[in-house]
Protein backbone atom coordinates (compact mmCIF):
# COMPACT_ATOMS: atom_id res chain seq x y z
CA UNK A 1 0.00 0.00 0.00
CA UNK A 2 1.01 3.62 -0.64
CA UNK A 3 -0.26 6.39 1.59
CA UNK A 4 -0.16 10.04 0.55
CA UNK A 5 -0.83 13.23 2.47
CA UNK A 6 -2.39 15.71 0.05
CA UNK A 7 -2.67 19.21 1.49
CA UNK A 8 -4.84 22.12 0.37
CA UNK A 9 -3.71 25.55 1.54
CA UNK A 10 -6.12 28.45 1.98
CA UNK A 11 -4.00 31.55 1.57
CA UNK A 12 -4.32 35.26 2.27
CA UNK A 13 -2.92 37.13 -0.72
CA UNK A 14 -2.73 40.77 -1.76
CA UNK A 15 -3.02 41.84 -5.38
CA UNK A 16 0.42 42.65 -6.87
CA UNK A 17 2.28 41.92 -3.61
CA UNK A 18 4.65 39.41 -5.23
CA UNK A 19 7.12 39.43 -2.34
CA UNK A 20 4.49 39.10 0.39
CA UNK A 21 2.53 36.41 -1.46
CA UNK A 22 5.73 34.46 -2.21
CA UNK A 23 6.84 34.57 1.43
CA UNK A 24 3.48 33.21 2.61
CA UNK A 25 3.59 30.44 0.00
CA UNK A 26 7.11 29.42 1.03
CA UNK A 27 6.10 29.47 4.71
CA UNK A 28 3.16 27.20 3.93
CA UNK A 29 5.39 24.76 2.02
CA UNK A 30 7.81 24.64 4.93
CA UNK A 31 4.99 24.12 7.42
CA UNK A 32 3.74 21.15 5.41
CA UNK A 33 7.03 19.29 5.09
CA UNK A 34 5.36 15.89 5.57
CA UNK A 35 2.92 16.39 2.71
CA UNK A 36 3.30 14.48 -0.54
CA UNK A 37 1.36 17.05 -2.56
CA UNK A 38 0.50 20.66 -1.74
CA UNK A 39 -2.25 22.51 -3.61
CA UNK A 40 -2.39 26.32 -3.56
CA UNK A 41 -5.27 28.51 -4.80
CA UNK A 42 -5.81 30.05 -8.21
CA UNK A 43 -3.59 33.01 -9.20
CA UNK A 44 -2.10 33.16 -5.71
CA UNK A 45 1.35 34.27 -6.92
CA UNK A 46 0.07 37.56 -8.38
CA UNK A 47 -3.22 37.81 -6.52
CA UNK A 48 -6.61 37.18 -8.13
CA UNK A 49 -7.79 40.79 -8.14
CA UNK A 50 -5.10 42.45 -10.25
CA UNK A 51 -7.80 43.78 -12.61
CA UNK A 52 -6.42 45.52 -15.73
CA UNK A 53 -2.82 45.27 -14.54
CA UNK A 54 -3.06 41.68 -15.81
CA UNK A 55 -2.38 43.31 -19.19
CA UNK A 56 1.04 44.55 -18.03
CA UNK A 57 4.08 42.43 -18.98
CA UNK A 58 5.81 43.18 -15.68
CA UNK A 59 2.99 41.34 -13.88
CA UNK A 60 3.65 38.17 -15.90
CA UNK A 61 7.40 38.58 -15.49
CA UNK A 62 7.27 39.01 -11.73
CA UNK A 63 4.87 36.06 -11.48
CA UNK A 64 7.33 33.84 -13.35
CA UNK A 65 10.25 34.98 -11.20
CA UNK A 66 8.26 34.11 -8.08
CA UNK A 67 7.42 30.70 -9.57
CA UNK A 68 11.12 29.93 -10.08
CA UNK A 69 11.88 30.89 -6.48
CA UNK A 70 9.05 28.71 -5.19
CA UNK A 71 10.19 25.78 -7.34
CA UNK A 72 13.48 25.70 -5.41
CA UNK A 73 11.49 24.77 -2.27
CA UNK A 74 9.82 21.68 -3.78
CA UNK A 75 12.45 19.06 -3.12
CA UNK A 76 10.74 15.78 -2.25
CA UNK A 77 7.23 17.08 -2.86
CA UNK A 78 4.79 18.10 -5.56
CA UNK A 79 3.37 21.64 -5.45
CA UNK A 80 0.57 23.09 -7.59
CA UNK A 81 0.36 26.87 -7.74
CA UNK A 82 -1.50 29.51 -9.78
CA UNK A 83 -0.25 32.45 -11.83
CA UNK A 84 -0.94 34.41 -15.05
CA UNK A 85 1.08 33.18 -18.04
CA UNK A 86 1.49 34.81 -21.46
CA UNK A 87 1.87 32.71 -24.59
CA UNK A 88 1.67 35.13 -27.51
CA UNK A 89 -0.88 36.36 -28.36
CA UNK A 90 -2.89 35.11 -25.40
CA UNK A 91 -2.83 35.51 -21.64
CA UNK A 92 -3.81 32.42 -19.64
CA UNK A 93 -4.78 31.70 -16.05
CA UNK A 94 -2.68 28.63 -15.25
CA UNK A 95 -1.70 26.23 -12.52
CA UNK A 96 1.95 25.21 -12.56
CA UNK A 97 2.96 21.76 -11.34
CA UNK A 98 6.31 21.79 -9.54
CA UNK A 99 8.30 18.80 -8.33
CA UNK A 100 11.86 18.51 -7.05
CA UNK A 101 12.75 21.99 -8.25
CA UNK A 102 11.37 21.45 -11.76
CA UNK A 103 8.35 22.86 -13.62
CA UNK A 104 6.62 19.73 -14.93
CA UNK A 105 3.76 21.43 -16.76
CA UNK A 106 1.29 24.30 -17.01
CA UNK A 107 -2.46 23.66 -16.97
CA UNK A 108 -4.62 26.54 -18.26
CA UNK A 109 -8.11 27.27 -17.03
CA UNK A 110 -10.60 25.95 -19.57
CA UNK A 111 -13.73 27.85 -18.49
CA UNK A 112 -13.56 31.51 -17.48
CA UNK A 113 -15.89 32.93 -14.84
CA UNK A 114 -17.86 35.77 -16.39
CA UNK A 115 -21.04 36.10 -14.34
CA UNK A 116 -21.87 38.02 -11.19
CA UNK A 117 -18.70 39.54 -9.74
CA UNK A 118 -16.31 37.93 -12.24
CA UNK A 119 -14.89 39.35 -15.49
CA UNK A 120 -12.12 36.86 -16.26
CA UNK A 121 -12.70 36.83 -20.00
CA UNK A 122 -11.71 40.51 -20.02
CA UNK A 123 -8.11 39.46 -19.34
CA UNK A 124 -7.71 35.74 -20.00
CA UNK A 125 -8.24 33.34 -22.88
CA UNK A 126 -9.79 29.89 -22.54
CA UNK A 127 -7.36 27.01 -22.28
CA UNK A 128 -8.54 25.56 -25.59
CA UNK A 129 -6.28 28.15 -27.28
CA UNK A 130 -3.16 26.66 -25.69
CA UNK A 131 -0.63 24.62 -27.64
CA UNK A 132 0.90 21.35 -26.44
CA UNK A 133 3.91 23.16 -25.09
CA UNK A 134 4.84 26.63 -23.87
CA UNK A 135 8.02 28.59 -24.37
CA UNK A 136 9.00 29.94 -20.97
CA UNK A 137 10.71 33.32 -20.44
CA UNK A 138 14.10 31.53 -20.30
CA UNK A 139 13.46 29.86 -23.67
CA UNK A 140 12.79 26.31 -22.45
CA UNK A 141 9.78 24.19 -23.41
CA UNK A 142 7.19 23.08 -20.84
CA UNK A 143 4.15 20.86 -21.45
CA UNK A 144 1.09 23.10 -21.68
CA UNK A 145 -2.60 22.26 -21.93
CA UNK A 146 -4.86 19.52 -20.59
CA UNK A 147 -2.41 17.31 -18.72
CA UNK A 148 -2.64 14.08 -16.74
CA UNK A 149 0.25 13.60 -14.30
CA UNK A 150 1.07 9.92 -13.87
CA UNK A 151 3.20 7.87 -11.53
CA UNK A 152 3.09 4.09 -11.02
CA UNK A 153 0.39 4.17 -8.34
CA UNK A 154 -1.02 7.71 -8.29
CA UNK A 155 -2.38 9.93 -11.09
CA UNK A 156 -3.84 13.40 -10.81
CA UNK A 157 -5.34 16.10 -13.00
CA UNK A 158 -6.34 19.73 -12.50
CA UNK A 159 -9.48 21.75 -13.08
CA UNK A 160 -9.30 25.41 -12.02
CA UNK A 161 -12.21 26.97 -10.08
CA UNK A 162 -14.88 27.66 -12.74
CA UNK A 163 -13.90 24.39 -14.45
CA UNK A 164 -15.47 22.61 -11.48
CA UNK A 165 -18.76 24.52 -11.78
CA UNK A 166 -19.64 24.00 -15.45
CA UNK A 167 -21.75 21.19 -16.83
CA UNK A 168 -18.94 19.58 -18.84
CA UNK A 169 -16.03 19.57 -16.41
CA UNK A 170 -12.43 18.85 -17.43
CA UNK A 171 -12.41 16.47 -14.47
CA UNK A 172 -14.84 14.20 -16.28
CA UNK A 173 -12.40 13.35 -19.06
CA UNK A 174 -9.43 13.42 -16.69
CA UNK A 175 -11.15 10.67 -14.72
CA UNK A 176 -11.88 8.75 -17.93
CA UNK A 177 -8.15 8.94 -18.66
CA UNK A 178 -7.20 7.51 -15.26
CA UNK A 179 -6.96 10.34 -12.70
CA UNK A 180 -7.21 9.10 -9.12
CA UNK A 181 -7.33 12.64 -7.72
CA UNK A 182 -8.80 15.84 -9.17
CA UNK A 183 -7.24 19.04 -7.88
CA UNK A 184 -9.43 22.15 -7.85
CA UNK A 185 -7.50 25.34 -7.05
CA UNK A 186 -9.97 28.18 -6.65
CA UNK A 187 -10.54 31.87 -6.03
CA UNK A 188 -14.16 31.45 -5.00
CA UNK A 189 -15.64 34.51 -3.31
CA UNK A 190 -17.72 34.50 -0.17
CA UNK A 191 -21.51 34.62 -0.31
CA UNK A 192 -23.89 33.62 2.45
CA UNK A 193 -24.54 29.88 2.18
CA UNK A 194 -22.15 29.33 -0.74
CA UNK A 195 -19.93 26.82 1.07
CA UNK A 196 -22.85 24.41 1.34
CA UNK A 197 -23.29 24.66 -2.43
CA UNK A 198 -19.61 23.85 -2.90
CA UNK A 199 -19.90 20.80 -0.65
CA UNK A 200 -22.84 19.45 -2.61
CA UNK A 201 -21.19 20.13 -5.96
CA UNK A 202 -17.85 18.53 -5.12
CA UNK A 203 -19.50 15.62 -3.30
CA UNK A 204 -21.68 14.80 -6.29
CA UNK A 205 -18.72 15.08 -8.69
CA UNK A 206 -16.65 12.79 -6.48
CA UNK A 207 -19.47 10.27 -6.15
CA UNK A 208 -20.12 10.18 -9.90
CA UNK A 209 -16.48 9.59 -10.71
CA UNK A 210 -15.57 7.39 -7.71
CA UNK A 211 -12.54 9.53 -7.17
CA UNK A 212 -11.00 11.98 -4.71
CA UNK A 213 -11.18 15.77 -5.02
CA UNK A 214 -8.98 18.29 -3.25
CA UNK A 215 -10.14 21.91 -3.25
CA UNK A 216 -8.05 24.95 -2.21
CA UNK A 217 -9.32 28.52 -1.93
CA UNK A 218 -8.10 32.02 -1.23
CA UNK A 219 -9.03 33.67 2.07
CA UNK A 220 -9.70 37.22 3.19
CA UNK A 221 -10.18 40.62 1.56
CA UNK A 222 -7.58 40.51 -1.17
CA UNK A 223 -8.11 43.67 -3.19
CA UNK A 224 -11.02 45.61 -1.70
CA UNK A 225 -14.43 44.31 -2.72
CA UNK A 226 -14.39 40.51 -2.78
CA UNK A 227 -13.90 38.50 0.38
CA UNK A 228 -12.65 34.95 -0.11
CA UNK A 229 -13.64 32.41 2.51
CA UNK A 230 -11.01 29.67 2.56
CA UNK A 231 -12.84 26.49 3.51
CA UNK A 232 -10.59 24.00 1.71
CA UNK A 233 -12.06 20.53 1.30
CA UNK A 234 -11.05 16.94 0.74
CA UNK A 235 -13.74 14.65 -0.69
CA UNK A 236 -13.57 10.91 -1.35
CA UNK A 237 -16.31 8.86 -3.04
CA UNK A 238 -18.89 11.55 -2.44
CA UNK A 239 -18.08 12.15 1.23
CA UNK A 240 -16.52 15.30 2.67
CA UNK A 241 -13.63 13.89 4.69
CA UNK A 242 -11.98 17.17 5.62
CA UNK A 243 -13.05 20.81 5.64
CA UNK A 244 -10.63 23.51 6.64
CA UNK A 245 -11.19 26.78 8.51
CA UNK A 246 -13.29 29.42 6.82
CA UNK A 247 -12.69 33.17 6.88
CA UNK A 248 -9.56 32.87 8.99
CA UNK A 249 -7.46 35.85 10.05
CA UNK A 250 -4.18 33.91 9.81
CA UNK A 251 -1.95 34.08 6.69
CA UNK A 252 -2.70 30.49 5.73
CA UNK A 253 -4.39 27.32 6.94
CA UNK A 254 -3.70 23.77 5.81
CA UNK A 255 -6.27 21.04 5.25
CA UNK A 256 -4.97 17.48 4.87
CA UNK A 257 -6.56 14.69 2.87
CA UNK A 258 -4.72 11.43 3.59
CA UNK A 259 -5.20 8.96 0.76
CA UNK A 260 -4.56 5.25 0.40
CA UNK A 261 -3.89 4.89 -3.32
CA UNK A 262 -4.62 1.15 -3.25
CA UNK A 263 -8.02 1.73 -1.68
CA UNK A 264 -8.75 4.56 -4.11
CA UNK A 265 -8.11 2.36 -7.12
CA UNK A 266 -9.97 -0.56 -5.64
CA UNK A 267 -13.04 1.61 -5.11
CA UNK A 268 -12.80 2.98 -8.63
CA UNK A 269 -12.56 -0.51 -10.11
CA UNK A 270 -15.66 -1.48 -8.18
CA UNK A 271 -17.80 1.62 -8.62
CA UNK A 272 -16.62 3.70 -11.58
CA UNK A 273 -18.92 3.79 -14.58
CA UNK A 274 -17.85 5.31 -17.87
CA UNK A 275 -19.86 8.22 -19.22
CA UNK A 276 -20.40 6.05 -22.27
CA UNK A 277 -19.91 9.01 -24.59
CA UNK A 278 -17.37 9.13 -27.36
CA UNK A 279 -16.55 12.74 -26.41
CA UNK A 280 -15.15 11.90 -22.98
CA UNK A 281 -13.33 8.80 -24.17
CA UNK A 282 -11.69 10.67 -27.05
CA UNK A 283 -10.80 13.71 -24.95
CA UNK A 284 -9.40 11.44 -22.24
CA UNK A 285 -7.27 9.54 -24.75
CA UNK A 286 -6.09 12.82 -26.27
CA UNK A 287 -4.71 14.23 -23.04
CA UNK A 288 -1.00 14.78 -22.70
CA UNK A 289 0.30 12.31 -20.16
CA UNK A 290 3.17 13.61 -18.08
CA UNK A 291 5.25 11.05 -16.26
CA UNK A 292 6.30 12.29 -12.85
CA UNK A 293 8.43 10.97 -10.06
CA UNK A 294 6.44 8.91 -7.55
CA UNK A 295 4.89 11.10 -4.88
CA UNK A 296 6.48 10.85 -1.47
CA UNK A 297 4.52 8.26 0.49
CA UNK A 298 4.15 7.88 4.24
CA UNK A 299 3.65 4.92 6.52
CA UNK A 300 0.43 5.85 8.24
CA UNK A 301 -2.17 8.55 8.25
CA UNK A 302 -5.15 9.90 10.13
CA UNK A 303 -8.38 9.93 8.18
CA UNK A 304 -10.55 11.54 10.84
CA UNK A 305 -13.36 13.75 9.66
CA UNK A 306 -13.07 17.47 10.43
CA UNK A 307 -15.96 19.52 9.09
CA UNK A 308 -16.49 23.11 10.16
CA UNK A 309 -19.83 24.28 11.52
CA UNK A 310 -21.35 27.64 10.67
CA UNK A 311 -24.59 29.48 10.08
CA UNK A 312 -25.49 32.55 8.03
CA UNK A 313 -25.22 34.99 10.92
CA UNK A 314 -21.85 33.65 12.04
CA UNK A 315 -20.56 33.64 8.47
CA UNK A 316 -21.67 37.26 8.11
CA UNK A 317 -19.87 38.26 11.30
CA UNK A 318 -16.69 36.51 10.22
CA UNK A 319 -16.72 37.62 6.58
CA UNK A 320 -17.49 41.28 7.14
CA UNK A 321 -15.19 41.72 10.13
CA UNK A 322 -12.42 39.97 8.17
CA UNK A 323 -13.09 42.23 5.20
CA UNK A 324 -12.81 45.32 7.41
CA UNK A 325 -9.73 44.01 9.22
CA UNK A 326 -7.86 43.23 6.00
CA UNK A 327 -8.97 46.54 4.45
CA UNK A 328 -7.51 48.39 7.42
CA UNK A 329 -4.21 46.50 7.49
CA UNK A 330 -3.63 46.65 3.73
CA UNK A 331 -4.52 50.35 3.49
CA UNK A 332 -1.90 51.02 6.20
CA UNK A 333 -4.13 53.35 8.19
CA UNK A 334 -4.65 53.61 11.94
CA UNK A 335 -8.31 52.69 12.29
CA UNK A 336 -11.87 53.64 11.42
CA UNK A 337 -14.00 56.67 12.23
CA UNK A 338 -17.78 56.28 12.32
CA UNK A 339 -20.69 58.69 12.56
CA UNK A 340 -22.66 56.70 15.15
CA UNK A 341 -26.30 57.73 14.91
CA UNK A 342 -27.88 55.41 17.45
CA UNK A 343 -29.53 53.46 14.64
CA UNK A 344 -29.18 49.88 13.43
CA UNK A 345 -26.77 50.38 10.52
CA UNK A 346 -24.08 52.39 12.28
CA UNK A 347 -24.40 50.06 15.27
CA UNK A 348 -23.70 47.09 12.98
CA UNK A 349 -20.57 48.81 11.65
CA UNK A 350 -19.25 49.35 15.17
CA UNK A 351 -19.97 45.75 16.13
CA UNK A 352 -18.15 44.40 13.08
CA UNK A 353 -15.01 46.42 13.84
CA UNK A 354 -15.12 44.98 17.35
CA UNK A 355 -15.58 41.47 15.97
CA UNK A 356 -12.46 41.91 13.84
CA UNK A 357 -10.45 42.88 16.93
CA UNK A 358 -11.75 39.87 18.85
CA UNK A 359 -11.11 37.42 16.00
CA UNK A 360 -7.60 38.73 15.40
CA UNK A 361 -6.78 38.43 19.10
CA UNK A 362 -8.06 34.87 19.15
CA UNK A 363 -6.35 33.68 15.96
CA UNK A 364 -3.27 35.89 15.69
CA UNK A 365 -2.55 36.50 19.36
CA UNK A 366 -3.56 39.25 21.81
CA UNK A 367 -0.58 41.43 20.89
CA UNK A 368 -0.89 41.19 17.11
CA UNK A 369 -2.59 44.56 16.65
CA UNK A 370 0.00 46.26 18.87
CA UNK A 371 2.77 44.60 16.84
CA UNK A 372 1.51 46.59 13.84
CA UNK A 373 1.86 49.83 15.79
CA UNK A 374 -1.91 50.11 16.32
CA UNK A 375 -3.93 50.62 19.49
CA UNK A 376 -6.96 48.27 19.77
CA UNK A 377 -8.85 50.90 21.79
CA UNK A 378 -8.36 53.47 19.03
CA UNK A 379 -9.23 51.31 16.06
CA UNK A 380 -12.66 52.93 16.07
CA UNK A 381 -13.62 56.50 16.99
CA UNK A 382 -17.37 57.13 17.11
CA UNK A 383 -19.05 60.54 16.89
CA UNK A 384 -22.70 61.42 17.47
CA UNK A 385 -23.65 64.49 15.43
CA UNK A 386 -26.95 65.70 16.77
CA UNK A 387 -29.55 68.15 15.56
CA UNK A 388 -32.80 69.38 17.08
CA UNK A 389 -34.47 66.49 15.20
CA UNK A 390 -32.58 63.78 17.06
CA UNK A 391 -34.15 62.09 20.06
CA UNK A 392 -32.51 61.47 23.41
CA UNK A 393 -33.09 57.76 22.75
CA UNK A 394 -30.73 57.61 19.75
CA UNK A 395 -28.17 59.85 21.43
CA UNK A 396 -28.07 57.63 24.51
CA UNK A 397 -28.02 54.42 22.45
CA UNK A 398 -24.98 55.61 20.50
CA UNK A 399 -23.10 56.52 23.68
CA UNK A 400 -24.01 53.27 25.47
CA UNK A 401 -23.04 51.12 22.48
CA UNK A 402 -19.63 52.71 22.07
CA UNK A 403 -18.94 52.45 25.81
CA UNK A 404 -19.91 48.76 25.88
CA UNK A 405 -17.57 48.07 22.97
CA UNK A 406 -14.73 50.01 24.59
CA UNK A 407 -14.27 52.63 21.87
CA UNK A 408 -13.70 56.36 22.11
CA UNK A 409 -16.93 58.32 21.70
CA UNK A 410 -17.79 62.01 21.44
CA UNK A 411 -20.91 64.11 20.89
CA UNK A 412 -21.41 67.37 19.02
CA UNK A 413 -24.38 69.32 17.67
CA UNK A 414 -24.52 70.61 14.10
CA UNK A 415 -27.58 72.91 14.30
CA UNK A 416 -25.44 76.03 13.98
CA UNK A 417 -23.81 74.67 10.80
CA UNK A 418 -27.23 73.86 9.33
CA UNK A 419 -28.51 77.32 10.25
CA UNK A 420 -25.47 79.03 8.73
CA UNK A 421 -25.85 77.19 5.42
CA UNK A 422 -29.57 77.89 5.21
CA UNK A 423 -29.00 81.58 5.86
CA UNK A 424 -26.37 81.84 3.12
CA UNK A 425 -28.46 80.07 0.49
CA UNK A 426 -31.61 81.96 1.56
CA UNK A 427 -29.83 85.20 0.70
CA UNK A 428 -29.03 83.78 -2.75
CA UNK A 429 -32.54 82.44 -3.43
CA UNK A 430 -34.40 85.25 -1.74
CA UNK A 431 -36.53 82.84 0.29
CA UNK A 432 -36.51 81.03 3.60
CA UNK A 433 -36.85 77.23 3.09
CA UNK A 434 -39.86 75.69 4.86
CA UNK A 435 -40.91 72.10 5.56
CA UNK A 436 -44.03 72.25 3.42
CA UNK A 437 -42.31 73.26 0.16
CA UNK A 438 -38.68 72.26 0.72
CA UNK A 439 -38.92 69.06 2.72
CA UNK A 440 -36.21 67.09 0.86
CA UNK A 441 -33.70 69.93 0.81
CA UNK A 442 -34.12 70.55 4.55
CA UNK A 443 -33.56 66.85 5.27
CA UNK A 444 -30.55 66.53 2.99
CA UNK A 445 -28.68 69.53 4.36
CA UNK A 446 -28.62 67.93 7.82
CA UNK A 447 -27.01 64.78 6.43
CA UNK A 448 -24.59 66.73 4.24
CA UNK A 449 -23.42 69.08 6.94
CA UNK A 450 -22.26 66.09 8.97
CA UNK A 451 -20.00 64.83 6.19
CA UNK A 452 -17.18 67.44 6.28
CA UNK A 453 -17.08 67.23 10.07
CA UNK A 454 -16.76 63.45 10.22
CA UNK A 455 -14.22 63.51 7.36
CA UNK A 456 -12.18 66.11 9.26
CA UNK A 457 -12.22 63.91 12.35
CA UNK A 458 -11.23 60.83 10.30
CA UNK A 459 -8.33 62.76 8.72
CA UNK A 460 -7.09 64.00 12.09
CA UNK A 461 -7.31 60.43 13.44
CA UNK A 462 -5.47 59.01 10.44
CA UNK A 463 -8.53 56.81 9.93
CA UNK A 464 -10.71 55.45 7.16
CA UNK A 465 -14.32 56.62 7.25
CA UNK A 466 -17.06 54.00 7.44
CA UNK A 467 -20.19 54.51 5.34
CA UNK A 468 -23.23 52.90 6.92
CA UNK A 469 -25.72 52.30 4.10
CA UNK A 470 -27.26 48.89 3.46
CA UNK A 471 -28.37 47.27 0.19
CA UNK A 472 -32.06 48.06 0.72
CA UNK A 473 -31.31 51.78 0.95
CA UNK A 474 -28.94 51.59 -2.04
CA UNK A 475 -31.60 49.97 -4.21
CA UNK A 476 -34.05 52.86 -3.79
CA UNK A 477 -31.57 55.68 -3.25
CA UNK A 478 -32.57 56.24 0.39
CA UNK A 479 -29.29 57.97 1.11
CA UNK A 480 -27.97 61.52 0.88
CA UNK A 481 -25.12 61.82 -1.58
CA UNK A 482 -22.12 63.54 -0.03
CA UNK A 483 -23.85 63.07 3.30
CA UNK A 484 -24.43 59.69 4.91
CA UNK A 485 -23.10 58.08 1.71
CA UNK A 486 -19.63 59.53 2.41
CA UNK A 487 -16.93 57.09 3.32
CA UNK A 488 -13.89 55.02 2.42
CA UNK A 489 -15.67 51.67 2.54
CA UNK A 490 -19.32 50.59 2.92
CA UNK A 491 -19.30 47.23 4.72
CA UNK A 492 -23.09 46.75 4.80
CA UNK A 493 -24.09 47.50 1.20
CA UNK A 494 -23.96 43.80 0.36
CA UNK A 495 -26.91 42.79 2.58
CA UNK A 496 -30.50 43.88 3.14
CA UNK A 497 -31.86 45.89 6.05
CA UNK A 498 -34.10 42.94 6.88
CA UNK A 499 -31.06 40.69 7.30
CA UNK A 500 -29.16 43.28 9.35
CA UNK A 501 -31.99 43.68 11.84
CA UNK A 502 -32.18 39.91 12.28
CA UNK A 503 -28.40 39.71 12.75
CA UNK A 504 -28.48 42.47 15.38
CA UNK A 505 -31.21 40.59 17.23
CA UNK A 506 -29.01 37.49 17.18
CA UNK A 507 -26.14 39.49 18.71
CA UNK A 508 -28.41 41.06 21.33
CA UNK A 509 -29.62 37.62 22.38
CA UNK A 510 -26.01 36.55 22.98
CA UNK A 511 -25.98 33.98 20.17
CA UNK A 512 -23.02 35.32 18.21
CA UNK A 513 -19.93 33.15 18.66
CA UNK A 514 -17.47 36.05 19.03
CA UNK A 515 -19.45 39.16 20.00
CA UNK A 516 -20.81 39.39 23.55
CA UNK A 517 -24.41 40.28 24.34
CA UNK A 518 -24.71 44.05 23.85
CA UNK A 519 -27.33 45.69 26.07
CA UNK A 520 -27.41 48.91 24.03
CA UNK A 521 -29.00 46.98 21.17
CA UNK A 522 -32.25 46.66 23.11
CA UNK A 523 -33.17 50.30 22.58
CA UNK A 524 -32.03 50.22 18.95
CA UNK A 525 -34.04 47.10 18.12
CA UNK A 526 -37.15 48.34 19.92
CA UNK A 527 -37.15 51.61 17.96
CA UNK A 528 -38.53 51.97 14.46
CA UNK A 529 -35.75 52.66 11.95
CA UNK A 530 -35.66 56.39 11.26
CA UNK A 531 -33.39 58.90 9.56
CA UNK A 532 -34.37 61.56 12.17
CA UNK A 533 -34.16 64.34 9.62
CA UNK A 534 -37.71 65.69 10.05
CA UNK A 535 -39.03 67.47 13.14
CA UNK A 536 -39.65 65.04 16.00
CA UNK A 537 -43.35 65.93 15.97
CA UNK A 538 -43.71 64.22 12.58
CA UNK A 539 -42.45 60.87 13.97
CA UNK A 540 -40.48 60.02 10.85
CA UNK A 541 -40.00 56.31 10.11
CA UNK A 542 -38.04 54.76 7.25
CA UNK A 543 -40.72 52.21 6.43
CA UNK A 544 -43.35 54.95 6.21
CA UNK A 545 -41.14 56.92 3.83
CA UNK A 546 -40.45 53.80 1.76
CA UNK A 547 -42.38 50.60 2.44
CA UNK A 548 -41.91 47.65 4.82
CA UNK A 549 -38.33 46.45 4.52
CA UNK A 550 -39.47 42.87 4.01
CA UNK A 551 -41.57 43.98 1.02
CA UNK A 552 -38.67 45.99 -0.36
CA UNK A 553 -36.41 42.94 -0.09
CA UNK A 554 -38.88 40.74 -2.00
CA UNK A 555 -39.22 43.29 -4.78
CA UNK A 556 -35.49 43.90 -5.00
CA UNK A 557 -34.60 40.20 -5.12
CA UNK A 558 -37.28 39.42 -7.68
CA UNK A 559 -36.10 42.24 -9.95
CA UNK A 560 -32.32 42.07 -9.59
CA UNK A 561 -31.62 38.41 -8.85
CA UNK A 562 -34.54 36.55 -10.43
CA UNK A 563 -35.00 38.98 -13.32
CA UNK A 564 -38.78 39.05 -13.05
CA UNK A 565 -40.73 41.28 -15.40
CA UNK A 566 -41.76 44.64 -13.89
CA UNK A 567 -45.41 43.97 -14.71
CA UNK A 568 -45.26 40.67 -12.79
CA UNK A 569 -42.76 41.55 -10.10
CA UNK A 570 -44.62 40.15 -7.11
CA UNK A 571 -46.85 37.10 -6.97
CA UNK A 572 -50.07 37.53 -5.01
CA UNK A 573 -49.06 34.91 -2.45
CA UNK A 574 -45.83 36.77 -1.67
CA UNK A 575 -47.59 39.66 0.12
CA UNK A 576 -50.95 39.61 1.88
CA UNK A 577 -51.85 43.30 1.45
CA UNK A 578 -52.29 43.64 -2.31
CA UNK A 579 -52.81 47.41 -2.26
CA UNK A 580 -49.58 47.86 -0.31
CA UNK A 581 -47.81 45.47 -2.67
CA UNK A 582 -48.96 47.34 -5.78
CA UNK A 583 -47.98 50.74 -4.36
CA UNK A 584 -44.65 49.30 -3.22
CA UNK A 585 -43.95 47.88 -6.68
CA UNK A 586 -44.57 51.21 -8.40
CA UNK A 587 -42.43 53.08 -5.90
CA UNK A 588 -39.62 50.52 -6.10
CA UNK A 589 -39.41 50.57 -9.91
CA UNK A 590 -39.43 54.36 -9.99
CA UNK A 591 -36.80 54.76 -7.28
CA UNK A 592 -34.56 51.92 -8.50
CA UNK A 593 -34.35 53.42 -11.99
CA UNK A 594 -33.72 56.91 -10.67
CA UNK A 595 -31.02 55.85 -8.19
CA UNK A 596 -28.37 54.21 -10.34
CA UNK A 597 -26.28 57.39 -10.36
CA UNK A 598 -26.18 57.16 -6.58
CA UNK A 599 -25.10 53.52 -6.65
CA UNK A 600 -22.31 54.47 -9.06
CA UNK A 601 -20.90 56.84 -6.42
CA UNK A 602 -21.20 54.76 -3.27
CA UNK A 603 -17.94 53.74 -1.55
CA UNK A 604 -16.48 50.29 -2.28
CA UNK A 605 -18.55 47.56 -0.67
CA UNK A 606 -18.21 43.85 0.07
CA UNK A 607 -20.00 41.12 -1.86
CA UNK A 608 -21.79 39.20 0.92
CA UNK A 609 -24.99 37.69 -0.42
CA UNK A 610 -26.25 35.78 -3.45
CA UNK A 611 -26.39 39.06 -5.36
CA UNK A 612 -25.22 42.64 -4.96
CA UNK A 613 -25.84 46.10 -6.42
CA UNK A 614 -22.27 47.38 -6.69
CA UNK A 615 -21.98 48.39 -10.38
CA UNK A 616 -18.24 47.72 -10.31
CA UNK A 617 -18.50 44.12 -9.20
CA UNK A 618 -22.09 42.91 -9.27
CA UNK A 619 -25.01 44.57 -11.08
CA UNK A 620 -24.67 46.94 -14.00
CA UNK A 621 -27.69 49.07 -14.75
CA UNK A 622 -28.13 52.15 -17.00
CA UNK A 623 -27.79 55.48 -15.26
CA UNK A 624 -30.63 56.85 -17.38
CA UNK A 625 -33.66 54.57 -17.86
CA UNK A 626 -37.42 54.56 -17.81
CA UNK A 627 -39.05 51.19 -17.11
CA UNK A 628 -42.24 51.61 -19.11
CA UNK A 629 -44.33 48.87 -20.78
From TrEMBL:
The keyword ATP-binding applies. Pathway: Cofactor biosynthesis; NAD(+) biosynthesis; NAD(+) from deamido-NAD(+) (L-Gln route): step 1/1. L-glutamine binds at residues 188, 194. CDD domains: GAT_Gln-NAD-synth, NAD_synthase. GO terms for molecular function: ATP binding; glutaminase activity; NAD+ synthase (glutamine-hydrolyzing) activity; NAD+ synthase activity. Gene3D superfamilies: Carbon-nitrogen hydrolase (3.60.110.10), HUPs (3.40.50.620). Deamido-NAD(+) binds at residues 444, 473, 598. ATP binds at residue 468. InterPro entries: C-N_Hydrolase, C-N_Hydrolase_sf, Gln-dep_NAD_synthase, NAD/GMP_synthase, NAD_synthase, Rossmann-like_a/b/a_fold. Its EC number is 6.3.5.1. It is an enzyme of class 6 (ligase). This is Glutamine-dependent NAD(+) synthetase. It comes from Leptospira neocaledonica. The lineage of its organism: Bacteria, Pseudomonadati, Spirochaetota, Spirochaetia, Leptospirales. The gene is nadE.
Amino acid sequence: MSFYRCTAVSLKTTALDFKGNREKILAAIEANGNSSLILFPELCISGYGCEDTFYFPWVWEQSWKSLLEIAKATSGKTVIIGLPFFQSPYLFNVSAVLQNGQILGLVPKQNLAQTGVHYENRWFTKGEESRNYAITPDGSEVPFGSLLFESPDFNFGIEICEDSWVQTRPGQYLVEAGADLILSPGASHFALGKQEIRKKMFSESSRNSSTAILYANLDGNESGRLIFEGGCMGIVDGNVKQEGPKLHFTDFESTHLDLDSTQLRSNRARNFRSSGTREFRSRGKGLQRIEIHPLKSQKDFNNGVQVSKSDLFQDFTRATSLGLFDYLIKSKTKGYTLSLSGGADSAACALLVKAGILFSGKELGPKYIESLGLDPKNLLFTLFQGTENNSEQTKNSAKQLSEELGFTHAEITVDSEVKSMLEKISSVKGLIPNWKEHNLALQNIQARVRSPLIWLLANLNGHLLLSTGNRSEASVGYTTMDGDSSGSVAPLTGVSKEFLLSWLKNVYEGKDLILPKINALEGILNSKPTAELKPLSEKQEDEKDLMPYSLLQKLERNFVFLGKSPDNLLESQEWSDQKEAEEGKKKFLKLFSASQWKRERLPPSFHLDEYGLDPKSSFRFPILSDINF
